[in-house]
Design brief:
The complex is a heterodimer of chains A (563) and B (49). Chain A is mainly alpha-helical and 563 residues long. Chain A has 17 helices and two strands. A two-stranded antiparallel sheet of chain A has the order 1-2. Chain B is mainly α. The longest helix of chain B is centred in the middle third of the chain and has 25 residues, at 19-43. The A-B interface holds A 159, 162-163, 174-175, 180, 183, 187-188, 190-191, 194-195, 198, 217, 219-220, 223-224, 227, 231, 260, 263-264, 267, 270-272, 274-275, 277-278, 281, 286-288, 291, 294-295, 299 and B 12-13, 15-17, 19-20, 22-23, 25-27, 29-31, 33-35, 37-39, 41-43, 45. The complex binds protoporphyrin IX containing FE and copper (II) ion. Copper (II) ion binds next to helix 6 of chain A.
């Protein structure tokens, strides 16, 4: 029998098991962000030419650990917490199968620890992509497999809870949009994990070296591996957008402009986003142009359309809600009067803008078969994905934790002053790091490369001075960004450990006084499209997009010296 | 699912309200268009003599 408590801040009815699971998953996520972030800092300090901190062996070890711990472990633990939140709590329901959820948690933790041990032992510096024929220790793959099985159990609990909530009629009509976003993430997660199993289990058997599987084909490995590797990024995107809608609903009680349109945009993700996995194969032999172009253009653009819809409707929803409150002057009073000092809002706002401009635009450029040639395997690639997964996803997760942690633990933030600045520090630091990495990539600097000075190699290459400058600036920005990440972690851990208990509002016994963010827990749109400010912002975005697209075709033309 | 109660709910809404149908679509579409198509192309590369 499930037990519940009522949240004094929001009036949510909270299943105690879900409460505990959300907390454990979120805290574990933050711990891995710390570990992975430190490795990231080491990597950045090595790629900063004037510092060049680690030796080659340690560099590749740190790079492998960084990719795994942040991309896989931090993101997915946090997403499991979000799945339990968007199902059990937003639907007012009990979490189904809590025991299974705990087994999932321990499998994920054990798997993550196992893979980390393998990496730290030093024989598994194969990067998180672990391309064959490079072979890592067997427990490197086994750890990832266990982690994935654990995450799959989390998804099962999510779907079962969704199903049960509907059967027990804990909510009316359709599920709220935030939950729909969580469901989109969960669907993509199931595809990701199943695809991962198809490739990682044979690779694990191959690494045992018992002759059962003597060889794994490199091309096939890449096709199937990226079906997992890319799709896992789309779990992040869907979860991050669910956070945007959740924050808009929580802070402004903002309803989506049109629930139908936003849900259809999520449907575009479910159907088409994973196909973009093919953008990792654009330079691979053996695959036809039809395959590459269909999967990265025709079909993918439908998913990009989905992203643009979310990018438009999140600020649109906020604008509509703010105008309703009377912030009606001019195009942008609603925006100017937004709570920029509240990290929940500023983190989300920066995440929307930076994800769109840094991650989104560059992703479409890179996914164009011809343009991909300019930047394939250069620093442009990590530049791009620090624009998506760091200043987009990670920042969105940080933003929502500024609300989630004090609310669930019922504690005051320990360093509210630092928290105010944290999203700007992290967002701008990592945003600049991402821009400078892209700059270096445009000048040809390779990714995953220990020494671009080629100090003791027989065949060298001299990069333009500007390339070293870009790498230096990327290093400086990364240090600023890491400081931002550190402050976030300090604030979260500090609040949980030493935060003062929140003083319950007077007469808290009366649940009606709690401001339930009903926009987060119910279905329904704002029923207006009168958001002129948002449309202006969207035009700025589209203009930048088009200009940058053509600039890149110009670069491409320059490659062959035709002009 | 009785057809009379869902009769006047539009098709798209019914689709979007069915998590398991969406889950199935989200598995089948990328598996066919991305994974299977890609693997078949690679397997059909002729082996060098
Ligand atoms: C603490 C702030 C961070 C810093 C300073 C940082 C810095 C870096 C640097 C310099 C690289 C190396 C690029 C190369 O040599 O090819 C890198 C790679 C990478 N980063 Fe980060 N990063 C940070 C946070 C994150 C986060 C939060 C994520 C994911 C959520 C992430 C995901 C990745 C991935 C997947 C790689 C590629 C690893 C590989 O090529 O195998 N980073 N990062
Ligand atoms: Cu990708």
């Amino acid at each position: 029998m499930a037990n519940f408590r009522t949240c004094p801040d929001t009036g949510f009815k909270i299943d105690l098991q879900a409460d505990k699971l959300i907390k454990w998953n979120a805290v574990t996520a933050v711990v891995f962000l710390l570990v992975g972030g430190l490795f990231g800092l080491l990597v950045a300090l090595t790629r900063w030419p004037a510092v060049h901190l680690l030796d080659a062996e340690l560099f590749y070890l740190a790079l492998t650990a960084h990719g795994l711990d942040v991309l896989l472990v931090w993101c997915i633990f946090f997403e499991i917490a979000l799945l339990y939140f968007t199902s059990a709590i937003l639907l007012n329901a009990r979490l189904v199968w809590p025991k299974l959820a705990w087994i999932g948690y321990w499998l994920m933790l054990g798997g993550a620890a196992m893979t980390n041990v393998a990496v730290l032992q030093g024989d598994s510096s194969v990067m998180f992509t672990s391309y064959v024929p490079m072979m890592a220790a067997p427990h490197f793959y086994l750890g990832i497999i266990l982690f994935a099985v654990g995450a799959l159990l989390g998804c099962a609990v999510f779907f079962a809870t969704l199903h049960m909530a509907r059967k027990e009629r804990t909510y009316e009509g359709s599920i709220p949009l935030v939950t729909f976003g969580g469901m989109t993430a969960a669907i993509i997660a199931v595809f990701t994990i199943v695809t991962g199993a198809v490739i990682l289990i044979p690779t694990f058997v191959w690494s045992l070296d018992m002759g059962l599987i003597p060889e794994i084909d490199g091309l096939i490995y890449r096709v199937i591996w990226w079906g997992m590797g890319h799709s896992s990024q789309q779990i992040n995107v869907a979860a991050q957008i669910a956070c945007w809608y959740a924050i808009a609903a929580i802070l402004f009680n903002a309803k989506p402009l049109s629930e139908k349109v936003s849900r259809t945009a999520f449907l575009m993700y479910i159907l088409f986003l994973q196909l973009a996995s093919a953008h990792h194969l654009l330079a691979d032999p053996g695959l036809s142009a039809e395959y590459k172009i269909f999967n990265t253009s025709y079909a993918l653009y439908l998913a990009v359309l989905g992203s643009m819809i979310h990018g438009l409707t999140v600020p649109g929803a906020i604008e509509a809600a703010q105008r309703k409150k009377g912030y009606n002057n001019g195009l942008f009073e609603w925006l100017a009067k937004a709570p920029w000092g509240n990290p929940v809002f500023s983190g989300m706002a920066l995440s929307v803008v930076l994800f769109g401009f840094l991650g989104g635009i560059t992703g479409v450029i890179m996914g164009t078969e011809q343009l991909n040639l300019i930047i394939h395997n250069t620093m442009y690639v990590p530049g791009h994905f620090h624009g998506t997964v760091v200043v987009g996803t990670t920042l969105a997760f940080m933003a929502i934790s500024y609300w989630l942690v004090p609310t669930l633990w019922q504690k005051e933030m320990v360093f509210p002053g630092l928290a105010k600045w944290q999203p700007y520090l992290f967002g701008l630091g990592m945003g600049c790091a991402s821009i400078f990495m892209m700059g270096a990539g445009t000048l040809g600097v390779p990714r995953r490369h220990w020494d671009i000075a080629f100090a003791d190699s027989p065949i060298g290459h001299i990069f333009p001075e500007a390339a070293n400058l870009m790498m230096g600036l990327a290093g400086v920005s990364a240090v600023v960004g890491s400081l931002g990440a550190g402050i976030y972690i300090l604030n979260m851990v500090g609040t949980i450990l030493w935060g003062k208990a929140k003083v319950p509002a007077p007469a808290a016994a009366e649940p009606t006084t709690a401001a339930t963010p009903s926009a987060a827990t119910s279905y329904g749109g704002a029923g207006t499209m009168a958001v002129p400010g948002t449309f202006v912002l969207a035009m700025v975005f589209l203009t930048t997009f088009v200009l940058y697209y053509f600039v890149n075709w110009k670069y491409l033309a320059g490659v062959w010296h035709l002009s | 699912m009785s057809s009379d109660s869902s009769g006047n709910i539009p098709f798209m809404q019914r689709l979007l309200d069915s998590p398991f149908v969406l889950l199935a679509l989200g598995m089948v579409v990328p598996t066919m268009l991305y994974t299977v198509w890609g693997v078949v192309e690679i397997l059909s590369i002729p082996v060098a003599p």
